[in-house]
Structure formats: C-alpha cells, structure tokens
Amino acid sequence: MTRFIAQRLLAALVTVWIATIAVTLLVHVVPGDPVRIMYGSFQTTPEELEAIRVRLGLDQPIWIQYAKYLGRLLQGDLGRSIVGDQPVLDILLVRFPMTLALAMASLVIAVAVGMSLGFLAAYKRGTWVDAGAMILAIVGVSMPHFWLGLLLLFLFALTLQWLPVAGGDWMSLILPALTLGLANAAVLARMTRSAMIDIFDQDFVRTARAKGLSQTLVLYRHALRSGLVPIVAMLGLQFAYLMGGAIVVENVFAWNGVGRFAIEAVFARDYPLIQGFILFFATVVALASVIVDVAYAFLDPRIRYS
Amino acid sequence: MTTETLDPRSADADAPVAASARRKPRSFLAALLRSPSGLIGLVIVGLLVVCALTAPVIAPHDPLRMAAGPRLQPPTWDYWMGTDDFGRDVLSRILYGAQLTLQIGVIAVGISLTCGLLLGLVAGYSSGWTERVLMRLVDVLFSFTEIVIALACLAIFGVGLTNAMIAIGIASIPFYARVTHSVVLVEKGKPYFEAATAAGAGHLRLIFVHLLPNVVPTLIVVGTLGVSTAVLAAAGLSFLGLGAQPPEPEWGFMLSASRDLISRAPWMMIFPGLAIAVTVLGFNLLGDGVREALDPRQRQR
C-alpha cells in the first residue's frame, strides 16, 4: 500500500511539474510584448517597462527564467500580482477556503442526489422510474450551470426571499452549492446507472439472488459494494469538474473564491496571478486524484497488488 | 488515471462503437429515427439550423438596433420574448444567436476533433515510448480540466468570441485524443489489422486506410456530444465576459447582461438560457441516438 501511495504521489508530482513548464511557456507564447500587455493600461515610460522586464526576469533566456521560477516556487514564492502588487500565494490561500467549501458542499449534494437517482434507475431498469430519472438527468446535464444558478437566484432569493442573494456566510453558500451540486448530480446519475447495470448483470449478483438471499442483502452486500468501486474511481475527475464549474458559479453568486479572482486576472492580463492560479488548480486537482485513487485501492484490493 | 473507460460527461462515450461504418446510410438513418432520443435530437438540431439559416427572414426585428422598440417590455404580441434594456427584441437576438452557436460548435469541435484524432492515431499506432510520452502528456492536460486550459488560452490570445471558440477547441483536444487512442488500441488487436500488417501494408496505409475508418463511428458520436460541451463552454465564457462582446447576440452574453435586471425583466434571463439548454439537450440526445443507431447492442441498455 505504501508503494502504491508513493507511486500515485509521484504521478501527481509529474503533473505539477508539467504545469510549471506550461505556465512558464504561457508568458512566452503571448503574441506581442507581455510586459506591454500587462502594464499597457498604466502610465509607463519605455524605461519603466524595461525596468519591469528586468524585475520579472523576462530579459533572460527562457531556461534561466524557468530555473529561477522553480527556485522561487520551492520557497513558496509564486510572485506578486500586477494589480494590487500582492503575493500571489497569499491571494490564493485567502480565497481557497471559500472555493473548497463550495466544492465540498456541492460534492455532497451531487453524490447524494446523483447516486441515489442513478441507483434507483438501474434497479428499476426499463420502468417509468428509470425513464423519468434519465430524462431528468439528461435535462440536468444540458442545463448551463450559470442559468440554473440564475433561475435558483430568481426563485429563492428574489421572488420567495428565503435565501440571501450574496454575502459570504453559510446561508449564502446554499444556492451556489445547490447549483453546482445539482448540475454534477445529473452527470453522476448517468454514470451510476451505467455502472450499476453492469453489476446487476454479473454472475455473482445472479448467484446471490439464485441462492435465495433477500433482496436487501443482495442489493447492499453484493451489488452496491462492488458498484461503488468504479463510481469512487470517477470521483477524482468529478472533483476536477466541480472545481472547474466553481469558477463559473462563483461568478454568478459573487462568491469570493479562487475562481472569481482567476477571471479578473484573465481580464487584467495579470500573468503572475494567472500562472499562480493554474499551478494552484493543477496541484489541488492532482492531490484530490491521489486521495481518490488511494480510496479506490482501499475498496478494491486488485488495484493495490497489480 | 483510473478513469480510463468512463468520462463524466457521457456515460460511455469512450466505449468503442462497433465497427459498422460501412453499413448502408439508409438503415442508419432509419435506426436513428427509431430511437426516441435520436428523433427528438434530430428535430431540435434541425430547428436550430433552420433558425440560423433563416434568421434574417424570420426575425421580426433588427437584433442589433437599439431603441427599435420600448425598453424592458414584457413579452407581448409584438415582442414575443420581450425587449432588453436597450429596446432590442429578445426573440430576434436569440434567432440570430443561433448562427453564432452553430459557428461555435463547428469551429470548436473541428479543432479538437482534428487535433485529437491525429494525436490519438499517432500515439495508438506507434506504441512504445512515443505512445507513453504522448498519452502521459494528454492525461496531464486532461486533468487540468477544460475550463482552466480555455482560460489559459484566453490569457494568451486575449478575450473575444473567436478566441473563445479556438480556446474551447484546444481545451478539448486531450479528451478526443484519449477516445481515439482507446479505440485504436482495440482495433489494433483485431485480426483484420494483423492481416494487413502481415500483408506488408505501410504505416500510412495502416493508419489511414485501416485504422481511420474504424475510429470514425466513435468519433461521430463523441463529436456530436462534443458540440453540446462546446456550446455550454462558449456560453459560459461569454457569460463571464471573456467570449462574445457587445453588441453580439450571443446567448451566454445575453444572460450575463440580464443579471442586474433579473427581478425587473426575468424574460431577459429565461429565454436565452432556455435556448442554450434546449440546444445542448438536442446535441446530447442526437449523440445518444447516433450511438444507439451505430451500435445496436447498446439499445438494450
């Protein structure tokens, strides 16, 4: 098991390492002069632009820039933002708890709603329950996050006035989490149904039924347990999608997370902040996938030992 | 990556579709029309195309002219979907928006399909180190998620609808590369491929004459489903202000313009969102239908 975890961590490290190369290259493939693009809107003389170029190290060959970037990264220095001149890591760390809270709350909703719907549909395969659940799921998959968010906002915050429009406390977390959670529940319902149908068709479930075990026992001890394995395996990717979706949903509800800031950074062409965000995002997603893989291996011994 | 076979966006898009590319087109169409999702999907997508093509004729008002009508007018007989804060007709803007939406779908999917197909073919065919390095890279990019890759591209190119289409196209390349790769691996193991290799077929012949036609059915399914992803992503970017710019009648952008007026003019929010949702639903259903039509075994599920 230790070896397995080490392997997964190493793979995550490779991902983050490739991300560092990607973000270094990012500034270099910008058509035109990145310094001029970044500072173009400020009042700057050519001398000042040159000074900035030297300060950011953009006057040096790319491999030296990369080496220096890695060196600073190892000391936890992600550079300073252009707008506001603050340490990028501080900005990200201050806002990350907000994004994490949103992502976790949404994941809980997505798993609870999506898995039960998918399980029910698979169990009642071919009936109107199945058809209804799958129609609901495909409509859910097709709903844009931001539209669902606006509809919920219109209904619960503006018309019924049960919930706040924005804020920052847990009450204002409900709508964004519901938006992101329901959108992902639809995806999860489709996956769960398809995974459970595979399980229901397998010999050991048929055997369990044939030997006269009660329906509940067959469902919980045999089918659900092994059906969970492929679904857990998909949760890593699901989490990545949730984090991606959070970027949009945060903007709908003015939720002050990392994603909202990332959009502002793209607008302002604040490259240090964009680089920091991509690297941060890649790291979080990579770590989440390690956790999911370990959980997966824990559930299914075949993974650990192969 | 432990999620090789299942992608969250479509329960089993990765699963290779049976190689029935050479089946008669007529029986394919018949099979497509027999499945409820295929039929509904085809109708929705057909309607979208008709709206896009005939927008200049059927749109009751000019989509861009300001103050063409009263401002913030609720839906009436003259303005079926109401007017926006500039007095523009929402229905006309949505009809013209269909043109942009189709453009987004074609350009974005075109980019990701072409590049992903080539990458997947090369990686799957070459095997060994080339394959390992390429697919590892694809996996890493895939784990960055599409929205982050698209944001990075926009940070490079700058904002705008055309740039957003290209960014979305690039962002999905890893997904198409993975799908192609997995199909190529299956096809490579089949007897016909071994026979062709044994008969001395060259690399190009093996790739383009033998592998490519058998990858196409799966990619048609994935591409159709991919249009829905692309439309969603583009609308999302426009909603964030990174895609379409005023006064373009893009649906996501229209939604974003409605945000401050939701309680005063909910129609500005409801109809463009409905347009996006129905379009995306149409391509999702069509994709499901095409898959069923190409692979009858799926129909029992």
Named CATH architecture of the largest domain in chain A: Orthogonal Bundle
Any idea of the CATH class of the largest domain in chain A? Mainly Alpha
Q: Please give the domain count of chain B.
A: 1
Strand content of chain B: under 5%
Strand content of chain A: under 5%
- The tally of helices of chain A reads 13
Return the domain count of chain A: 2
Distance between the termini of chain B: 26 Å
Let me know the largest β-sheet of chain B.
Answer: none
Fold and architecture overview:
The complex is a heterodimer of chains A (306) and B (301). Chain A has helices at residues 2-28, 34-39, 46-56, 62-74, 88-123, 128-142, 145-159, 174-200, 203-210, 215-252, 258-268, 271-299, 301-305. Chain A has 306 residues and is mainly alpha-helical. Chain A has 2 domains: 1-77 and 270-306, no CATH class; 96-267, MetI-like fold. Chain A is globular. Chain B is an all-alpha fold and 301 residues long. Chain B has one domain: MetI-like fold (Orthogonal Bundle). Helix content of chain B is 68%, strand content 0%. Chain B is elongated. The relative contact order of chain B is 0.17. The model of chain B is unreliable at 1-16 (pLDDT under 50). The interface between A and B is large, with 66 and 55 residues. Chain A: The chain crosses the membrane at residues 100-123, 135-158, 170-189, 228-253, 273-299. Chain A: It comes from Albimonas pacifica.
